[in-house]
Structures are given as C-alpha cells and as structure tokens.
Amino acid sequence: MDDIDSLAQEVKQSRKYTNLLLDSIDEEDWFRQSSDKITYIAWQVGHLAVGQYRLALLVIRGPQPRDEELIPESFIRQFQPGSVPEISANQTFSAKEIRDVFDRVHAHTITDLQQLSCNSLSETVQPEHPMFSTKGGAIRWSTHHEYTHAGQISLQRRLLGYPPLW
Fold first, then answer.
1. Are the C-beta atoms of residues 99 and 15 closer than 8 Å to each other?
2. What pLDDT digit, counting tens, does each position of 4-32 carry?
C-alpha cells in the first residue's frame, strides 16, 4: 500500500530534478531545436505539465470547474500525448507561460495529494492504464513519466551545447 507522505516525496523529488535541469537552461533556448529536430525544451515542459495534470489530478479527483484556470484546454491540446513537438511561427505559449502552468499544476498536485486518505490510494481507476490500476499507482507513474522526460530535457540541453551538470 502506498502512503501519502512517500508519494508526496516522490513527486517533489522528481520535480526537484527537473527544475535543476530547467534552471540551468536560458529561457531563450527553450524553443531551440538541436539538429535532429525531434523535440525542444518548451514542449517537454508543457508535456510534463499535462502529464502531471492528467495522472496526478484528473485521474484522482476527476475534472473540476476551475481546471481551465489551472491548465487551459488549448495548452492540453498543444502538449498532450500524441501531439507533435514542432516549433511554429504562431507559437501559442511563451516559455514563461509554460513554466507558470508547469509550476501551478505541480503546486495543486502537492496540495491535493496531501488531502487524500491512504485508503483512496488503493482505489482502482477506470479505464485501467497499462502502467497502473490504482490512484496511488497513477501518482507514482507521474513521477516515472517526469523522470523519463527529464532525461529528454537533459539530452536536449547537451545537444544545445550546455556542459554537463555533474
């Protein structure tokens, strides 16, 4: 059985690592692509915000009336799974706006997580996901998802010419 404190610590730890990477990248480089043209930092950050919203909030508590203020539907469409990380002339969100949503979703995740009961973590989710079947599993998977994309941010960072952090 999961416990709230250990899950909250995992969520905070994965974000701490991602923030360490992001804080070492100039904001103007968030929309630069390396020569492979596969992804860019801003898309990775936006995608992480959408992933955390869906996995650690939406799956746990369902949609809420104020979610549009938390993470706009247009943001979700731009960064959802299956979206293509292409840089276009009519980019919808700036690096600051993306970072604000990223931070806002995370703050709500921590607040909502600390209000859950331990029993609710073992509740099953529908539809079942290939990587988890319970609410606690959804939250834990959000941290694995974050580490996966933090690895992509780290690689993109190096491809953009930044030195290793350690």
1. no
2. 999 999 999 999 999 999 999 999 999 99
Q: How many CB atoms lie within 10 A of CB 60?
A: 21
d(CA 7, CA 161): 35
User: What's the pTM value of the predicted model, to 2 decimals?
Assistant: 0.95
Residue-wise pLDDT for 66-104, tens only, equals: 999 999 999 999 999 988 888 876 678 999 999 999 999
For residue 102, how far is the Cα from the chain centroid?
Answer: 7
- Smallest Cα–Cα separation from 108: which of 144, 70, 134, 75? 70
Coil, strand or helix at 59: helix
Angle between helical axes of 4-22 and 135-159 (0-180°, round to 10): 10
Q: Residue written as tokens 């999961």?
A: 2
Cβ atoms of residues 153 and 44 within 8 Å = yes
Query: Could you tell me the sign of the dihedral formed by the alpha carbons of 129, 132, 133, 134, in that order?
Result: negative
Residue 36 has φ and ψ, to the nearest 5°, of -75, -20
Distance CA 166, CA 34 (A): 21
Residue 155 identity: L
DSSP state for residue 6 in the 8-state scheme: H
Tokens of 164: 């290793």
